[in-house]
Amino acid sequence: MSVTTPQTRAPLTESGFLSTRPVWLVGLLATLAGAVVTEAFALVARAAGVPMEAASPGATEAAEIPVGGFFGGVLFWSAAGIVLAVVLARWAKRPARTFTVTTVALTALSLAGPAVAPHTATSTQIVLAASHVVAAAVVVPLLARRLAHVRR
Question: 63 forms bridges with which residues in the sheet?
Fold first, then answer.
């Protein structure tokens, strides 16, 4: 009969690859993953016949959203999220919680843009709003998980 001892190694969620990397690097990888998933979502919507034309407030007509536009949008807006994560990792008492609450609130606020986009088909507005949620669903949990491992 053999005696078993508890494992001394921490679970994968505590000692995984991403938990040991710099916050900015995890943010960059999360952003790339979010951009790819969001662009794939937009390509599926395009293939389903959703018109990819939208207008900014004040515009007189909608302009085409180019292939790659969703990818670029995720890269652009996630840069601010990476900066936020790095700042919170350095100075926040509970960086993962603060990051999650802040980014969920900002994602909810971002849904107003597609909702009020003039000269934009309703189906396009729905895809635009859903793409915000898709990007956040990929990027936020990855960065929040990394921030949960910040050691003081």
Answer: 54
pLDDT digits (tens, 9 = 90+) for 12-49: 444 577 888 999 999 999 999 999 999 999 999 999 99
SS3 2: coil
**Distance from C-alpha of 25 to C-alpha of 85, rounded to nearest angstrom:** 11
Burial class of 123 by CB neighbour count within 10 A (0 to 12, 13 to 18, 19+)? middle
List C-alpha distances in Å: 14 to 6, 24, 89, 139.
16, 18, 16, 19
Q: Which residues contact 54 (CB under 8 A, 6 or more apart)?
A: 62, 63, 65, 114, 117, 119, 120, 124, 125, 128
